[in-house]
Design brief:
heterodimer; A: about 270 residues; 8 helices; B: about 150 residues; alpha+beta; 6-stranded antiparallel sheet; 4 helices; about 25% helix
């Protein structure tokens, strides 16, 4: 069982191992290489076969939970000791602090919205963008647009006891999920994407490796919500019979054997430190 | 020529009986991506930060029916490369549902649809995309439409 740590608590060796595993995945030419993950996120951001799996739907949280597990497994195929770290943006809130240091994610884009110039993912030679709606071949960031969510805002979201509510999309106002995803105020997930900017604000956001640290934090916050309200299947909605979204026991594509129910209790697979 | 001047001129053109004759002197004005949409004073075709941006709105009646029929959407081009815009339902201030736009470039920050006094939503979304692109261009992936939030 893995333990996912706060990025600020990683040792130098752990940071180096994480970066090396991510870059090794990028250099693979077949199978579940890094760009497979980028393409999968692009494909599933939208509705597939009339069903919204990854975004604007209740399965936003369980779909990304499985997506992170798959990515973590891919990293562990390179280095079994690697676990995903998380970026807690309620405490690390600057463009030069954790995780945007030269030994982990690297810093801001040059000139406001240009290529990242520091760290292991700077420049197309170190980290080439292959799948994107924009033509830049190097990673870009435009950090500081808007504000990162605060501890008080996180607490307000985690205090909503209903998981989600009809109409189960980006206009739902009756549950935790849309506040967490961010189409409803106070907006936790979307806001951090926008704050980092560059590729993180685009459809191909996993091209920026900080995607994984951000989504690991979102998954951690869901786990905190579950710790408070329950890991049981009654704490996922909708239970059954809802068109266009993934019910509790329906498969989450592209993983036919995985349902929201099967990923609710993650504690046998990984925990958060 | 300032962007606002161009927009105003476009509006004038659209309501002028001599539109065709006047427009012939205006680069690209005849090239409408979606002629069936007809004249809409919110449409634009301007230079912004070194890029030529063009926006074509579907008609007001069609906007009202978007909740039921989303086969058509507004169209945006940046340097003649298509940027698909997708409608997404959002909680409205004061209750109910409103419709915003996202694109492949602005994927996590919707811009509200043009309603009431807000008449520049599509232009705002397009300018944001140009701000993100900087010295880069859209790829064909940016022009692929997909559904959100139905």
């Amino acid at each position: 069982m893995g333990i996912r740590k706060n990025a600020r608590d990683l040792t130098s060796a752990e940071k180096a191992a994480f970066v090396a595993a991510v870059k090794a995945l990028k250099t693979r030419t077949t199978g579940r290489n890094y760009d497979w993950f980028v393409t999968t996120h692009i494909n599933f951001f939208a509705a597939v076969g009339g069903i919204r799996y990854a975004h604007q739907s209740p399965s936003f949280l369980p779909w990304h939970r499985q997506y992170l597990i798959e990515f973590e497994r891919a990293l562990q195929s390179v280095d079994p000791a690697v676990n995903l770290p998380y970026w807690d943006w309620t405490t690390d809130r600057t463009v030069t602090g954790v995780p945007f240091t030269a030994d982990l994610m690297g810093g801001n884009g040059s000139g406001g919205n240009g290529p990242v110039t520091t760290g292991p993912f700077a420049g197309a030679t170190n980290w080439r963008i292959n799948v994107s709606p924009s033509s830049s071949t190097s990673l870009r960031r435009a950090m500081g647009s808007g504000t990162l969510p605060t501890t008080a805002q996180v607490d307000s979201v985690l205090g909503v006891s209903a998981y989600d509510a009809a109409p189960w999309n980006s206009s739902a106002t009756g549950g935790m999920r849309n506040r967490m995803e961010g189409w409803q105020s106070p907006n936790l997930h979307n806001r951090a994407h926008v704050w980092v900017g560059g590729h993180m604000g685009q459809q191909d956001s996993p091209n920026d490796p900080v995607f994984w640290l951000h989504h690991c934090n979102i998954d951690r916050l869901w786990s905190r919500w579950q710790t408070r309200w329950g890991f049981d299947s009654g704490r996922y909605l909708p239970a059954a019979g809802t068109s266009g979204v993934v019910d509790l026991n329906e498969a989450m594509q592209p993983w036919p054997g995985v349902t929201p129910a099967s990923v609710l209790d993650h504690r046998a697979t990984y925990t958060y430190a | 020529m300032t962007p606002s001047t161009v927009v105003n001129r476009r509006a004038v053109l659209r309501y002028s009986a001599a539109t065709a004759a006047v427009a012939s002197g205006f680069a690209g004005a005849q090239i409408m991506a979606n002629p069936a949409a007809g004249a809409d004073p919110r449409d634009f075709e301007i230079e912004y930060r070194g890029k030529r941006i063009r926006g074509v709105h579907v008609g007001a009646q069609e906007i009202q029916s978007l909740g039921r029929n989303r086969n058509r959407s507004h169209e945006v081009f940046i340097n003649d490369r298509k940027l698909a815009v997708m409608e997404i339902e959002l909680p409205a201030a004061g209750g109910g549902v409103t419709v915003g736009f996202i694109s492949a470039i602005n994927h996590y920050e919707p811009v509200l649809i043009d309603t009431g006094r807000n008449r520049t939503g599509l232009l705002k979304l397009t300018k944001r995309a140009v701000d993100v692109l900087g010295d880069t261009e859209l790829t064909p992936m940016a022009g692929v439409a997909h559904e959100h939030g139905r």
